[in-house]
Amino acid sequence: MGDRTVVVADDDADIRDLVTFKLDNAGFTVVPAADGDEALDLVLEHRPDLALLDVMMPGRSGLDVLRSIRADDSLAGTRVILLTARARDVDVDAGFSTGADDYLTKPFSPRELVHRVTALIGRD
Q1: Is the pTM value of this prediction over 0.90?
Q2: What is the DSSP string of 11-37?
Q3: How many domains does the chain have?
Q4: E strands, 5-117, in order
Q5: Among 67, 92, 97, 110, which is least packed, fewest CB within 10 Å?
Q6: What's the gap between Cα 37 and its chain centre?
Q7: Taking Cα atoms as reference points, which of 59, 44, 56 lies closest to residue 7?
Q8: Is 96's pLDDT higher than 60?
Q9: Domain holding 100: CATH number?
Q10: Radius of gyration of the chain from Cα atoms?
């Protein structure tokens, strides 16, 4: 099926670079975004297999982007993992009720991140 594409959205450049590096090394095509608005534009443009969204971003939050993805039937196949610094049950519930496929709490293990992405969309 060719490269698996992942949009990575985080307003923290260090985290974005780390995630991009790890997923790129694991064989995924990574499209980085610095905020939620850019993330949604890139999801619509690239139709990725998965979007990795930081919950707390300027402009649109990760949950806002997730809502937009789930409201668009043409993006029905896009998996979503939320990244959050807050592990409160309320946040986890909000993420899953909005349609997230998985959830990672910061700080996270890069190996765990690659494992979760691979579990959702596989690799060639």
Answers
A1: yes
A2: S-HHHHHHHHHHHHHTT-EEEEESSHH
A3: 1
A4: 5-9, 29-33, 50-54, 79-84, 102-105
A5: 97
A6: 13
A7: 44
A8: yes
A9: 3.40.50.2300
A10: 13
